[in-house]
Design brief:
Length: 630
């Protein structure tokens, strides 16, 4: 192939979606000259589907991205139009922040940050091939990228973050055509060329609902969903946010809706077999919901504004690949949508991605050195999952160039660790979505303490700024000082019981500390203020941290003990070239899986599908014997 080398970079990132943006920013902020390529600059940080950031489990990822020095939390804090904390009726482990975004504003602000980042060049261009050479051992090593125009750029590391653009194909009823998301051009050549280098691809599918015009909807027939009166920021850099918020609306499908959809199953690519890609289990189309939950009388739909300067409303929960005429028919059976006008029809989209079992925990591909993979290209779904992987891919590309050990977060340290470990170790047969239930140690992996878990690490690798690090140290000290003050500040029974009586709870006998009072479930930090004369001015971040540490102290201590046991397996390292065939007693399937995936530790080995606890025990005994023989 002939091409012209235009420039040389340390890191080249293919795709400027949520994964690509975080990857490129991370690499540039860590001192590497970086190029970020996008088929069109209008797709930078594009929200092709839902106009929101965060949600259950996903909000944890955004906080962790922010704590490590990423951009997503800062950007949504600048561009949100409504904010809500979800799951507040449950414990703090599953509290998750979610914000409606102004989609166009989110795109513009992220693009501006990228354009102004020192050492980062944003370029419009379609990457169609990699430059791959072989090292002295015959291994493939990526050395750059080639564009459709035959311009080429050399690179020491390349990150693929193609989202749903790779061989994208859209389905609307009986119609199907090649396209990327939101009507943009697909990337057709790169996928075919990747196969030359031993990178196998498969097909996944996702979808999006129609966008309706606000003036055609009757909001009086819907249930208003307002934002929280007190706005909780996503970024730890923001102590307080104030903004006029706009409402979302809740409505429901009904039996008429379901009948129209059932009567037209034969016109949906999902049922005709035309759509081959596997769709997301936890975000199914409305036709899949009706088939799967046939006994359910209704399904909810949130009607969400896409921005302040547009009439478009996102019909959340009702994605479909049915034809446009059927879309009009069934949407108009829903209260408030009887006269809706569709600005953009719903569609399903198929795209190429890899099996994540073919990448390492560092997100480097096993078959091509210095090639890193992130986002939906790895088989995940969602903006937040993509951004988290992009951040880690960017960090690890820099570490690979510098000859440093990979930066890996384990399952006890972060939801990011859970996400990547699940993908790389267990694999996925459908677009993967993070959920709080996937994390074994979710009581200590709360969104409120993401900075306490990760900001020190981000500072050590050079991604967290001095400003952020100093703010983190101030918060950490403020929380520690306040916990100590509450433990040594005592009140008399008269003082305490007057407060307890006003709150309608049982009295106490004898002096007690403010800390002990706060352990009561009905009492929070603010409710003890009438008897607390020495309290300092604290940010909402610090107050949340203090409350959780006091109320859940026993549970946290118990989970930390579980983590210590977990660490014993994680700390038993396994060499990449370990020969599992010499271990007597290992089942054949276990030997095959362990040889193929090359786990870095016994802990990772224990999570591989097809490797049983008995296999791990056999391996542990073998390692102990070898240790004694040395």
């Amino acid at each position: 192939m002939s091409y012209v080398i235009m420039d040389e970079y340390d890191v080249v990132v293919i795709g400027a979606g949520h994964a690509g943006c975080e990857a490129a920013l991370a690499a540039a902020r860590m001192g590497k000259r970086t190029a970020l390529f996008s088929i069109t600059l209008e797709s930078v940080a594009m929200m092709a589907c839902n106009p929101s950031i965060g949600g259950t489990g996903k909000g944890h990822l955004v906080r962790e991205i922010d704590a490590l020095g990423g951009e997503m939390g800062l950007n949504i804090d600048k561009t949100f139009i409504q904010s809500r904390m979800l799951n507040t009726a449950k414990g703090p482990a599953v509290h998750s922040l979610r914000a409606q975004a102004d989609k166009e504003h989110y795109h513009r602000e992220m693009k501006k940050v990228i354009e102004r980042q020192k050492g980062l060049d944003l370029k419009q261009g379609e990457v169609t091939d990699l430059i791959v050479e072989q090292d002295e051992n015959g291994r493939n090593v990526v050395c750059g990228v080639v564009l459709k125009t035959k311009s080429a750029y050399k690179a020491k590391a390349v990150i693929i973050a193609t989202g749903t653009f790779l061989k994208g194909k859209i389905f609307i009823g009986e119609s199907s055509f090649e396209s990327g998301p939101n009507g943009l051009a697909p990337s057709n050549e790169l996928g075919d060329n990747l196969k030359k280098y031993g990178i196998e691809l498969r097909r996944f599918k996702t979808g999006t609902p129609a966008r309706a015009l606000a003036h055609s909807l009757d909001f009086s027939k819907m249930i208003e969903q307002k934002g929280d009166p007190e706005i909780v920021p996503f970024s730890f850099m923001n102590d307080k946010l104030e903004k006029d918020q706009i409402s979302c609306w809740l409505t429901y499908t009904n039996e008429n809706t379901h009948k129209i959809i059932r009567d037209n199953y034969h016109r949906s690519g999902l049922f005709t077999g035309e759509i081959e890609g596997v769709g997301p289990r936890y975000c199914p189309s409305i036709e899949t919901k009706i088939e799967r939950f046939a006994d359910k009388e209704r399904h909810q739909s949130f009607i969400e504004p896409e921005g302040l300067d547009t009439e478009e409303m996102y019909i959340q929960g009702l994605s479909t690949s049915l034809p446009e005429d059927v879309q009009y028919d069934f949407y108009r059976t829903i209260p408030g949508l009887e006269n809706l006008e569709i600005a953009r029809p719903a569609y399903a989209i198929e795209y190429d991605c890899i099996d994540p079992l073919t990448i390492k925990l560092s997100l480097e591909h096993r078959n091509v050195d210095n090639l890193f993979c992130a986002g939906q290209f790895n088989g995940s779904s969602g903006y937040e999952e993509a951004a988290a992987q992009g951040l880690m891919a960017g960090i690890n590309a820099v570490h690979k160039i510098d000859g440093k050990e990979p930066f890996v977060l384990d399952r006890s340290e972060a939801y990011i660790g859970v996400l990547i470990d699940d993908l790389v170790t267990k694999g996925t047969d459908e677009p993967y979505r993070i959920m709080t239930s996937r994390a074994e140690y979710r009581l200590i992996l709360r969104q409120d303490n993401a900075d306490l878990r990760l900001t020190e690490k981000g500072y050590e690798i050079g991604l967290v700024s001095e400003e952020r690090y100093n703010k983190f140290l101030e918060k950490k000290k403020a929380a520690e000082d306040e916990l100590e003050r509450l433990a040594r500040t005592f009140v008399t029974p008269i003082q305490a019981n007057e407060l307890l009586e006003s709150l309608g709870t049982s009295p106490i006998e004898g002096r007690t500390s403010l800390e002990e009072l706060m352990k009561r479930p009905e009492i929070n930090y603010n409710s003890i203020s009438p008897i607390d004369d020495t309290r300092p001015e604290l940010s909402s971040h610090v107050i949340t941290q203090v409350e959780v540490q006091i109320k859940y102290e026993g549970y946290i201590r118990k989970q930390l003990a579980q983590v210590e046991r977990f660490k014993k397996l994680e700390n038993r390292k396994l060499e990449a070239d370990f020969d599992y065939n010499v271990v007597d007693g290992l089942r054949i399937e276990a030997k095959q899986k362990l040889t193929a995936l090359k786990p870095l530790s016994l802990g990772q080995a224990s999570r591989i599908s097809g490797v049983s606890p008995a296999d791990i025990n056999v391996l542990l005994i073998y390692l102990e014997k070898q240790k004694r023989l040395r």
